[in-house]
Amino acid sequence: MSELRVRLEVIGPGRLGYVRVRAGERTTEVSLEQLPAELRLPNASFVAVMDGTDFVRVDPEGEAWLLIQDGIRPVLNSKWDPEGTAGSHPDAYDHYLPILYGMLRRGSSDERIAEFLLAVETEDLFVRGSPGSERLGIARELRALELPAVDCDEDVRDANRGPTVSRRRTSWMLAAIAAGAFWFSAVVFFLRLAEHGPSTPNVIAAISFPIAAICQTIVAVRLRREPDSGGSSSSGP
Prior knowledge:
Blueprint: E1 4-13, E2 18-23, E3 26-31, E4 45-51, E5 54-58, H1 62-80, H2 97-106, H3 110-124, H4 132-143, H5 153-161, H6 165-196, H7 200-223
Antiparallel strand pairs: 1-2, 1-4, 2-3, 4-5
């Protein structure tokens, strides 16, 4: 998961060697060793780098990062929102913000950003790819944002890697398992039919055969979903 910047406020002592901090409506504990002395006091406020719910470090450039996140987030939520969840979960795509900022900072083209959005849609979120013209429009709007300049070497490397490779591998693994179940059930069915004729095991095998085939088909469709017409990342508006 990409790291995000979150404003934290110290609300009091926690366990021995920890202070309790608040981020919006959530609270967590941070080790005193990770905070300078002036940020250990009640009501102290600072911007931290968070990896999910885990505290990573205090970010001296945190205020600039908050501006960056607040600039990119509304574009993704109002113009992109491939899962349709931004209305109830405005932070739904927050883990893509640092990667997109890294691409913008590096000067990536509209086409490269549109490609990344498509990869997120089809490989990370498993939804149908949006039309290329829409993604290019979002890319142009993102590149038009006036954002602070901060160091983002890690996020540029994340952008070069693209969306989660592990999820892609998982998808192919599921497809392989489904294919194995398909052929195994077919072999069992025909062997039992040849040796024993119609029987209860044969009926079970006969039922498992189409179920496995359906599972394989569903996985294949999920993996091969193509964007609608105009969905190519190099297509124009």
